[in-house]
Design goal:
The chain is an all-alpha fold. It contains four helices and no strands.
């Protein structure tokens, strides 16, 4: 088999894989949409799970993880949010970093 034939065969296989992946994605999207619509009609939750973090939980975790880079927390005015971030911060941070947020 010549190099040109190998390249052509490889491109054909890649194209077939891409088409198959697109079909699978369309199926997945259709399945999700049907599941959500069925749950809405039934008045229930489509994908109940406590294992999936909410966007808020992810954001709090990221802020706490990067607390040493941005310890000021300017713009965060909700005291409950501040408390949650501080609870999630690393307890081994130097006092010079964390002292600004001690009441």
């Amino acid at each position: 088999m010549s190099l040109a034939q190998k390249v052509a065969a490889s491109r054909k296989a890649a194209k077939a894989e891409a088409v198959e992946a697109e079909k699978q994605q369309e199926f997945n999207n259709r399945h999700l949409a049907k599941t959500i619509m069925k749950a809405k009609k039934g008045g229930s939750v489509a994908f109940p799970s406590n294992q999936i973090e909410s966007l808020t939980e992810i954001a709090l975790r990221v802020v706490a993880k990067n607390f040493s880079m941005y310890p000021h927390l300017k713009g965060v005015e909700d005291q409950s949010i501040l408390d949650q971030i501080i609870k999630l911060t690393d307890t081994n941070l130097p006092i010079t970093v964390t002292a600004r947020n001690i009441n």
